[in-house]
Amino acid sequence: MVELFVMEYLTVLYMIMAYLFMDSRYSRRRTVFIVSSVTILLMAAVVALYRAVDMDTAFWTYAISIHIPLILLLFTLSRFRGWRLIFQQLSIVLFCTLIHHISGLFYYLSGNRFWVMVLSCTLLSTGVIWFLVRFLRPLFFQILLELHRGWWLICLVMATYYIIAVFLIPGYAGFERSSSIIKPVIALLMMGFYSILMFLFFSIRKEAETRHSAQISALQLSALQSRMEAVRVAEDVIRTERHDLRHRLQAVAELVARGDTATALDFLDAAQKRLDEQKAVRWCRPPVLDAVFSSYFDQAENEEISVDATVALPDELPVNEGELAVMLANALENAIHANLKLPPKQRKICCRMVASPSLMLELSNPCDRKVSFDDQGFPVAQREGHGIGTQSIVSFCKKYGAVCHYDLTDGIFRLRLVL
Predict the structure, then answer these.
(1) Given 139, 189, 190, 252, which residue has the most CB atoms within 10 angstroms?
(2) How are beta strands 360-366 and 348-354 bridged, if at all?
(3) Which residues pair with 408 in a beta bridge?
């Protein structure tokens, strides 16, 4: 019965780890239901396997009979694909085999006392799961999202450990002396590699956060400088108009004295229009966002892109103003670049942003080319080095739990975001 307990316990542990290491594309309730259902089916299959064959065959085929359904489960539920999906699978295997082999060592050293096996499995599992939930899981998902190269090499190292520990080293931890010692040692060495990997990931994340903070600061400085320059130009024009006001009034008085009121009114109307053209437009109250809107809308108009915008935002925002400004800057920059591929008469940007009942953004522009979307609904970059702006938008949505939807309908590309 010890063998059956080990296999059943590992089955439950694998499924718990799968849930922890998986960023599901479905709701939490649906994900829990699917994972629980698969766990029950696999536990029943383990019982059938244990009764149908001898222990050696059962242990040898157990890994395959569990890991194949596990990779299929990840493929069905996980948001990630390719090597990152394989990395999720191998991470699950690493932590489960670590718990299995170390508890097997304690079981062997205790003289095969079953309660030692149960206690060591419980304590090790509790500690590892607490560590994953408390520290590793947030970093794990962040790196899966931000790291785009080198996954195949990491997976190669971890797959080598998997093959050696599970299939090449004979015997079973807890039942034979050599395997009870060698397998935990190899598992600990592999955890050392994984720890170094996580440390490098942590350094990459810190570097990304530093770059992001620098980007926010640079954007704030650039946008505010642009806004200040626009205000300065408007003030210079108004100062000039004020200086010329005496001459204008004298000309108007002369026209009125002659009885040519129509010409006098046209003269005043022309002066008023010149003042209105130089009037600084304020798009919203938050200063950094107002500066971003002004900067990019001015840039669009300079590129002969018509702008139709409605912005209604309060002083207080539910998110960091600088990070929201970076997200908007990336979205507006993408829209401007898309418009530049069109004839001037077809260029247009429509922007709607409100804060009630929740923060909502809709940004649209015409598009004359086919756009591919990934399995999460985000546009796929057509060339290497492109798509950085979209990645920044995705990171913003992940951080603040925003719902982001892209679509291309009737030649209009739309970004909708709800927070």
Answers:
(1) 190
(2) antiparallel
(3) 413
Q: What is the DSSP string of 81-149?
A: -THHHHHHHHHHHHHHHHHHHHHHHHHHHTTS-HHHHHHHHHHHHHHHHHHIIIIIHHHHHHHHHH--S
CA dist 179 and 170 (Å) reads 7
Ramachandran bin of 307, using left for φ above 0, alpha for ψ from -120 to 50, beta for the remaining angles: beta
User: Helices 114-131 and 83-109: crossing angle, nearest 10°?
Assistant: 150
Domains of the chain and any CATH numbers:
2-213 (no CATH), 283-419 (3.30.565.10)
Digit-coded pLDDT (tens) for 205-216: 777 667 766 665
Looking up tokens 């756009």, which residue turns up? Answer: 371
pLDDT in tens, 33-85: 998 998 899 888 888 887 887 766 776 777 778 888 888 888 888 878 888 88
Contact 286, 313 (CB under 8 A): yes
CA 114 to chain centre: 45
For residues 353 and 361, is the Cβ–Cβ distance under 8 A?
yes
Q: Please give the distance of CA 40 from its chain centroid, rounded to a whole number.
A: 32
Q: Residue 290 in contact with residue 297, Cβ under 8 Å?
A: no
DSSP 21-74: T--BSS-HHHHHHHHHHHHHHHHHHHHHHHHHS-HHHHHHHHHHHHHHHHHHHH
Q: Which amino acid, 105?
A: L
Assess contact for 350 and 308: CB atoms under 8 A: yes
CB 363 within 8 A of CB 332: yes
Q: Indicate if the pLDDT at residue 289 is higher than 50.
A: yes
Q: How far apart are the first and last CA of the chain?
A: 52
Residue 278: CB partners within 8 Å, gap ≥ 6? 233, 234, 237, 238
What is the 8-class DSSP label of residue 397? Answer: H
Strand 306-312 with 348-354, pairing: parallel
Q: How many CB atoms lie within 10 A of CB 141?
A: 16
Overall pTM surpassing 0.85 (yes/no): no
